[in-house]
Amino acid sequence: MGCEVCATRPSTVETAIGESWFVSIPAGDAPLTGWITLATREHRETLDELSADEAASLGPLLRSLTSAIRAETGAERTYAANWAEGTRHVHFHIVPRLAGLEPSRLGAAVFALASDDILHPPIAEQERLLASLVAAVARDRNRGLL
């Protein structure tokens, strides 16, 4: 059985950021504006399979993306989760922890929102924010932060 991430690339809702990573809207439809995935461009199933360059760029990239998500969405914090169980490809869900989120949806329970049809923002709004996040990463790269 092949890798779902590799098989569905490229997508209209993904953007390469650097040589090693790309960002996308999860499954093309995030439950919250600002919920994105960060995945390796090369197939990797576990973090210990990352190349030295991939590993070195991960921390600064997560910092840049989470900072941009907080600035764009007003999130109190961001979650970054990597289980790679259902999809065996290194990828992180980066999720804004918005004010007013129900206590029953905090932490890992935020993933239950994926099945909630009410919250899913319009795809155009999700794509606009994704473009803004990519631009923020480019600014950080130009400033030498990545």
Task: Give a short summary of the structure.
Helix content is 32%, strand content 17%. With 146 residues, the protein is an alpha+beta fold.
List descriptors.
HIT family, subunit A; 32% helix; 146 residues; HIT domain-containing protein; HIT-like_sf; alpha+beta; 17% strand
Distance between the termini: 35 Å
Number of helical regions: 3
Number of domains: 1
Main β-sheet, spatial strand arrangement: 1-2-3-5-4
Q: How are helices and strands ordered from N to C?
A: HEEEHEEH
How does the overall form come out from the CA principal axes? Answer: globular
In the predicted model, the low-confidence regions spanning at least 5 consecutive residues are: none
* CATH architecture type: 2-Layer Sandwich
What structural class is derived from the secondary structure elements? Answer: alpha+beta
Strand content: 15-25%
> What percent of residues adopt helix (DSSP H or I)?
25-40%
Number of strands: 5
CATH superfamily: HIT-like
- Reading off the top of the CATH hierarchy, the class is best stated as Alpha Beta
- Nearest-integer average pLDDT: 87
CATH fold call = HIT family, subunit A
> What is the CA-based Rg, rounded?
15 Å
Q: Major sheet, described briefly?
A: 5 strands, antiparallel
Organism: Rhodoglobus aureus
Protein name: HIT domain-containing protein
